[in-house]
Amino acid sequence: MTYHTTVLLHEGVDALKLVSGGVYVDATFGGGGHSRLILEKLEGGRLLAFDQDPDAERNALDDERFVLCKANFRYLKNFLLAKGVQKVDGILADLGVSGYQFDEASRGFSFRFDAELDMRMNPKQPLSAKQVLNDYEEAELRRVFKDYGETSFANALARRIIKAREEKSLEFINDLVRIIENLVPERKRKSELAKIFQAIRIEVNDEMGALHDFIKTSADVLKEGGRFVVISYHSLEDRPVKHFMRSGNFEDKQDKDIYGNVNRPFDPFGKVIVPSDEEIERNPRARSAKMRIGIKRSNG
């Protein structure tokens, strides 16, 4: 099984504008596609990659310039300092779930399989999908489905889960799928299942909190003129990236100086880049990808 088909492979690496001897970060190592190409194109320098999933270690690259940090990218700054790095020339992040995580039934990320309700990107972390569904109060479940799944069935689904678990705990993916299928019209089932599984996964892994931490930390560790490249797959991921690049905060509130310049650490560069029709045909999972580029300002 292919671990992961890298999305916007050449576009992502080209956007970094690699410089000889530069220090770079692949914040989402996964199958190592972006890292491999960075090392092929980079003269000298160093590449530090991050991945919290121990299964990604099998893809570690045999190159003296490469270091794999087994951690969530929200801890970027601390791990860089531990490796003797204060500033880097570029950071690339390919957000979301790897193809391997979706396709490995035992990880519980996909409703295509029946397995234990898990969805942890780091299997050592305490919170799992099973605990969210069995321990959260109704109001908390509503929040998760509404905020992270943006589904109109949030209220009804939360009520049904509370009722279902009174009879028996929800242990397996099919326990949840049956509840959803009995609630959602057939023509909407696949899309709603995707939204609801996304919502639980985001909650389990605190993906929004980690992303916010990562974006702010990236602004701290990038050198002046350094490139910040982020590939996202849904609006919840793309929105904070877009807002922070544009306004320097997640609320998209622009604070301007006396000359009308927005006070922000990054200058957005170019237009949003999306996969070509040919790439989407080869890899349908790429269809929702958006890539944004920010350049670190001298006054950031």
Describe the largest sheet: 7 strands, mixed
Poorly predicted runs: none
Strand content: 15-25%
CATH class of the largest domain: Alpha Beta
User: Which overall shape is indicated by the principal axes computed on the Cα atoms?
Assistant: globular
Radius of gyration: 20 Å
Question: What's the overall average pLDDT, rounded?
Answer: 93
Percent of residues in helices comes to 40-55%
* The named CATH superfamily of the largest domain: Vaccinia Virus protein VP39
Biggest β-sheet: strands ordered side by side in the sheet: 3-2-1-4-5-7-6
Structural class: alpha/beta
Q: Give the count of helical stretches.
A: 12
Topology order in helix (H) and strand (E) letters: HEHEEHEHHHHHHHEHEHE
User: What is the count of structural domains?
Assistant: 2
Fold and architecture overview:
The chain is α/β, with parallel strands linked by helices. It has a seven-stranded mixed sheet, with helices on both faces. The radius of gyration is 20 Å and the shape is globular. The chain has helices at 9-15, 33-41, 76-82, 99-103, 129-135, 138-149, 154-167, 173-181, 189-205, 207-221, 235-247, 277-282, and strands spanning 23-26, 46-50, 66-69, 88-94, 222-232, 266-273, 290-296. The protein has twelve helices and seven strands. It starts with 8 loop residues before the first helix and ends with a strand.
